Amino acid sequence: MELRYLNRQNHFNRSLTLSRHSFPHFLKVWHYHLELELVYITESSGTRFVGDNISKFEPGDLLLLGDYLPHMWMNDEVYYERQEELRARAMVIHFDKNIFQKVLGLIPEMNQINQLMQAACRGISFSEEVKEPVYDLLQGMFELSPLEQVLSLFKILEVLTTDKNRSSISSSGFTKAFNAPNSRRLDVVYDYILNHFTEQIRLEDVANLANMNSAAFCRYFKKVNKTTFSKYLNEVRIGYSCKLIMEEQYSVSEIAYKSGFNNLSNFNRQFKMVKGLSPTEYLKQYPS
User: Fold this and answer.
1) Per-residue pLDDT for 278 more than 70?
2) Residue of 70, 102, 129, 139 with fewest CB within 10 Å of its CB?
3) Can you list the domains of the chain with their CATH numbers?
4) Which Gene3D superfamilies match (predicted)?
5) Whole-angstrom distance, CA of residue 173 vs CA of residue 216
6) CA distance 190 to 183
7) pLDDT band at 51 (very low <50, low <70, confident <90, very high)
8) CA distance 180 to 187
9) Average of pLDDT values for 213-217?
10) Count of helix runs (H) and strand runs (E) in the chain
């Protein structure tokens, strides 16, 4: 798919743009923008594409999408058949992360909101426990002054930080961004993975970066990330391969080697383990 940049800049000298979308169907364009996007789907269903993730969407879905994160909402086919009773509706906020982070950086009590915006680089899907209060706050924002809207957005973000069941959408490998855990000890490891995952990575070398032996490193890494180092590395590589697949510039075998796998059969096996389908089947899910 061709990736397009959409300009979501507010032309009224404001730090956020609040919109009610109501269309026969959502914009079927694989795109990104420089602003964070908070979206609440109020009507319609279909398939959402966020980074390398493909999932169904339905009314009540609540997501926070990071800047530069490619995404698209593709409604079910019935919405493209010009049936007047069907509408695709959503409440959407676009806001400039840099402006808000400058403010948040000055207020220690806002650190959790800052971390939430950082984690949005992979996209975040929120659970039922916060949907109702966020829906009410979003509805009320349309009656507020610009200043009150900003304050209300801070309140929404604060509510979102309380969701213990929120989940990341896209893989870290696709976005090339890492939501670092609380311990800074592994920062050098994440940096190394980011810069070398297309090459051979030896466990001993990575453990040395963390000043641990291999066994201790594996235990610590799993404790922090809730997954093994090898699985984490494979997910990063598979996420990156998804990006290459969608660009449609290389063969599957070329993508395997460019993503850090030393043979095609292992790549196909790992891809199916992570994504649940083969690379070819994965590509077919994306509209051309």
Assistant:
1) yes
2) 102
3) 4-168 (2.60.120.280), 172-284 (1.10.10.60)
4) Homeodomain-like, Jelly Rolls
5) 25
6) 12
7) confident
8) 7
9) 96
10) 12, 11
